[in-house]
Specification:
70 residues, mainly alpha, 3 helices, 0% strand, elongated
Length: 70
């Protein structure tokens, strides 16, 4: 049981780390796309889906990041 909780925390940290990186590179749409692609390879499918939800919310009012999910 403790191992399961530990693994779950590690996976949550992966998502948080990806979000932190994306926030830091959000000044450059090409870099944002590159980091998003890296995250897609690193995260499990359900984690990536969570990240995409965050990206949609984060980029909603940022025209400079329009099209990063294409």
């Amino acid at each position: 049981r403790d191992l399961h909780l530990s693994l779950r925390r590690q996976r949550q940290m992966c998502i948080r780390d990806s979000i932190d990186v994306l926030r830091k590179v959000s000044f450059d749409s090409a870099l944002f796309r590159k980091e998003l692609k890296k995250a897609s390879r690193r995260l499990l499918p359900y984690e990536y889906n969570e990240l995409i939800i965050w990206v949609k919310e984060f980029t909603a009012n940022k025209p400079e990041l329009e099209g990063v999910l294409v």
